[in-house]
Design goal:
The structure is a homodimer of 341-residue chains. By secondary structure, the first copy, chain A, is α+β, with helices and mostly antiparallel strands. Chain A contains seven helices and 15 strands.
């Protein structure tokens, strides 16, 4: 059984995935990223290589499914027990109860969010929403973390387009910090901090990347990495899963266009995105405002940066936003290599 | 001038190093790690490739210096101005005032902390102490962050053994969180949290790696990455720079032995370490307890992990400690490849 452990001073929880304990030799060489369709467990025809699916879209189509959600074959947290928390002197631990699923975003091994049709990107967002709504009902879970690792350098071990979902009995540290920060802000000003960000970015414009009906993509004022970009609803909404399916269409257009621009301007960079949505047990309408944080992996993040929370970023967000607003300035269609100036 | 910017919700500060603004094309291909002695700016004979040194050891030796501390040629923070903080709507910024130095740990390009003589490792620690004591006097600085990136995968852009030091007008987020956590703990129990960790680890033993007169190396209870290891003094001490030079000798023995074991068991892994010492302006004897956090880079840390503060670690610390306590069990001297079992 995996175990959740809490650092008694910093307060962060980590998953110790005891079921796949690794010996020193297992770390070298790094497990290769599976490439190509051969043996890909997410391609059509290999459905029996994954556990039975919990959601499937596109069954009405003659050529079969278009999206599947399946339990992770190597889950970080496991299923059917009740939560058991215990102390060990100054330390706290909990059995690793939770859910770990994979969202296979498309049947097309070589696709990407920037090249899929808008409707297919919409289906990915719809699948996120469906799973969030379903997992809310599990009283053991406090948070459902949805994220995507794209490219080996960003931690993806499979090439086929997919996202992941981890339902867990705790709230991840940075989400809790955001909630605490937003709560302090709200008490002081009676306004949502992210709503204020939206207003200031709309007024200022220098960090705006894209706008669609009801959604913005902005380069945050204090980005940790070059070209960090956030997508957020332009009016207040705590939980992603409250977005109505019609709203997801506009969001899909925005996300697809943003990813297409990343692919063009930064030439298909490895990236991670994480959906920051309100903790499941936060009262409806709390001060949280959901957002998607997208971090391309263009520089090596030194260990000291995530060991201290102190980041050095060589690219001002105003510059990054300008490149993404005007991709043709930087990467004309006829030259993928970009144009040095 | 570089700029410090604060995220209005999460509260973290980042350095926007505006002086080296990067265009999209600058990110590909990744700058290669300089290899070999040719053109190495830290090798003897190339002293004119670095700015004038602020500390030099070993001048009495016939073969020249043994350690140099020099200003970073591409500093993340810059020098001689006064601090100017300003608001911009909901955002906070500060001019990027600070100090960025490089500790060239040895004249020997091919050395490592695990292979240097103990006295040379002691000189590295002495240099850290000297610079901390000197920079305390700069009233603009709130924190001096000392860290080491070893190996390209851990963010080192030069191969020659070196550490870095950044003196900054803010306290890094995770250090502040540790101080806050330790302060809460102290108020509740009237005891230092790290002193309690030392006592529990000494009693339990399962996570102990090494002990030397006055210092311990332990695998923390909730490690973020496989083989994360902390070194800390076994009696209470808030600031690293309060360690007397005699104490540094025992610490050097411990650090050298630990690094030698890492090199043996994990075969010279890339790693980062960060010295967590009390903020400069914390009252003497505060609840902080300095420690060195060492994180080998054996797995790819996915962006979602440092984007959420939520880590998945496949190696229980009790296992890691056992391998490091008994390296001969795992990596006998005659076989660098380890021994599959």
């Amino acid at each position: 059984m995996p175990e959740l452990r809490r650092d008694p001073i910093a307060g962060r929880w980590v998953i110790i995935a005891t079921e796949r304990a690794r010996r020193p030799i297992d770390f070298r060489p790094e497990p290769a990223t599976a490439r190509g369709r051969d043996g890909c467990p997410f391609c059509p025809g290999s459905e029996d290589l994954t556990p039975p699916e919990v959601l499937r879209l596109g069954d009405h189509r003659p050529d079969g499914w278009t999206l599947r959600v399946v339990p992770n074959k190597f889950p970080a947290l496991l299923g059917d027990e009740d939560i058991q928390a215990s102390g060990d002197g100054i330390y706290d631990r909990m059995n690793g109860v939770g859910v770990h699923e994979v969202i296979v975003e498309t049947a097309d091994h070589g696709a990407s969010l920037g090249r899929l049709p808008v409707a297919a990107v919409g289906d990915v967002l719809l699948a996120y929403r469906e799973r969030l709504l379903a997992l809310r009902k599990d009283p053991r879970l406090e948070y459902v973390l949805i994220f995507k690792n794209h490219g080996a350098a960003a931690g993806a071990s499979l090439e086929h387009p997919h996202s992941q979902l981890i339902g867990m009995p705790i709230v991840p540290e940075l989400v809790q910090e955001e909630l605490d920060g937003a709560t302090r802000y709200y008490r002081l000003k009676e306004r949502c901090a992210w709503c204020d960000i939206v207003r200031q970015e709309q007024r200022d414009g220098a960090r705006l990347v894209l706008a669609e009906s009801g959604f913005l993509a902005v380069a945050p004022f204090a980005p940790r990495v070059p070209f960090e970009t956030w997508i957020l609803p332009s009016t207040h909404q705590a939980a992603f899963e409250s977005t109505e399916p019609e709203g997801l269409e506009a969001l899909a257009r925005l996300l697809r266009e943003l990813m297409a621009r990343f692919e063009r301007v930064l030439r298909d960079p490895p990236y991670n995105y994480v959906l920051h949505t309100a903790p499941l047990r936060t009262a409806e309408g709390g001060p949280f405002h959901w957002h998607l944080e997208l971090m391309p992996k263009l520089t090596r993040v030194a260990g000291f940066e995530w060991g201290t929370g102190f980041f050095i970023n060589p690219t001002p967000p105003e510059e990054a936003a300008r490149f993404l607003r005007n991709p043709e300035e930087w990467a004309p269609d006829h030259g993928l290599e970009g144009r040095p100036r």
